[in-house]
Amino acid sequence: MQSLKNLIIKAIICFILFAGIAVINAQSCATWGSGEDSIKALQEYSLYREYYKAQKTQKEKDYSEVIEHWRYVYNNAPGARLSPFVDGIKIIEDRIKANKENREVKSAYIDTLLGIYDKRIECHGNEGKVLGMKAGKVLKYRSKTHLRVILEDYNKSIDMEGVKSNPQVLSNYFKAAIIAVRKDTIAKEEAFSIYLKIIPIIEQNIKQREAAVKPKEVKERESFIKTRKKIEEGLKKIIKDCSEAKVAFEESYKKRPDDPQLWTAIFSIYRNLGEECTKDPVFNEVALKLFEKDSSAIYAIVVALNTSDATIAKKFFDLAILKETNNNKKANYAMKYAKYAKDRLGSMSAARTYALKASGFKPDWGEPYLFIGNLYAASGKACGLGTGFKSQSVVWPAMDMWEKARNDPKSAPKAQKQINKYKEYLPSKQDCFMSGITEEGQNYNVACWINVSTRVRFKR
């Protein structure tokens, strides 16, 4: 009985394979044909497309009425149009879903699905692109048993497509590599090699669209940025910390110090593993090499933040601001140098200069004004002795800045907190009279390094 049952199942599967998708001669890429054959093929094409389009608009799709007409076109005119290959994927995946409980029938449909990609390559070319698509389906349906095949197909696809590779293909390639590492199908080193191969392609695509304004190009750039993030998150699953990253890449760097792809990979990995890695000399070294190669702002800012030489730091902060095309990022870089000038150099005037540059790039941003206000408020001792009038007068220009900062909803709470706090440190009416100031609201020039005109306010 059991053997009879097995025979029946096998017969059903054979029926699916031969009635569902008749085996086509490997060299047959026929078009519409001629005479009655041509009329029949065109009729079947028209019917399948009509049914198919109608189903696409339905929430619950049912391609059972489509498949017979589609099958005829696929079997008899595979070279005529590309659409049967594109539509066929959805049609057969519908059958896979419908037979999810029947493992053998489902497997037969998966074979059919993958065969559609092979036939598409045979009849319509574009092997690199289609191989990447096929590998995605193998990853979806057979990742447990076909990891090596998946990796080989992705590798070949990317070799053929290069910088034209689809971001989803790049993402799935590395996803397959991570699965393969976890299943001991490949060593970590092979996954790192895959990473080194795909990251430069992603970076090149992002850079090519750096100044994109057309919606299509902006969307493409965002897609590659998301892909990079996804891959970097995946990398963290197999590289747990900076010490592992060093083991994985620094030996390669010693052997290939002039390899730009390796620089890009090290930069990307180290940047995402925290301060231990970003303070490593190799990180700064590859950032400098990458900047010399393509003058990108992101590399300049890394060199600026990691050098101990103040002159070099300023040079690279300025280069980062100059090379960056996005004003919001320019503002961020200018603020980074403002904080660097204050904390590392102790130069209040340089800090203010760059904070004002930041506000120029991003006028509605409250952070620069909040920062300058804090600089002024901290300058009491530098501008006057003790708690006298001159040391207290710095609060006036500080409040000018905090009032500007309040216009930015994100900075407003901090700005108001500073205003409330420093009201206590305003000069008294008596101290102002003693210094020749008789009216609240009159202009007054605060001297020392601040050297700005402000409005007089009395302590209440």
Going by helix content, strand content and strand pairing, the class is: mainly alpha
Instruction: Report on the biggest sheet.
Output: 2 strands, antiparallel
Overall morphology: elongated
Number of strands: 2
Q: In percent, how much strand structure appears in the residues?
A: under 5%
For the largest beta sheet, what order do the strands appear in spatially? 1-2
Helical fraction = over 70%
Number of helices: 24
Taken in chain order, the helices and strands follow as: HHHHHHHHHHHHHHHHHHHHHHHHEE
Low-confidence stretches: 7-27
Question: Roughly what is the average pLDDT, rounded to an integer?
Answer: 89
- Rounded Rg: 33 Å
Distance between the termini: 101 Å
Kindly describe this structure:
By secondary structure, this protein is mainly α. Among the domains are: 29-125, no CATH class; 388-459, no CATH class. 71% of the residues lie in helices and 2% in strands. It contains 24 helices and two strands. The protein has helices spanning 2-20, 35-56, 67-76, 83-98, 103-124, 127-142, 147-161, 167-182, 188-208, 215-235, 242-255, 260-271, 275-278, 281-294, 297-306, 310-323, 327-345, 348-361, 367-377, 380-383, 389-393, 395-405, 412-422, 429-434, and strands at 443-446, 452-455. Strands 1-2 form a two-stranded antiparallel ribbon. Strand 1 and strand 2 (452-455) form a beta hairpin. The model is unreliable at 7-27 (pLDDT under 50).
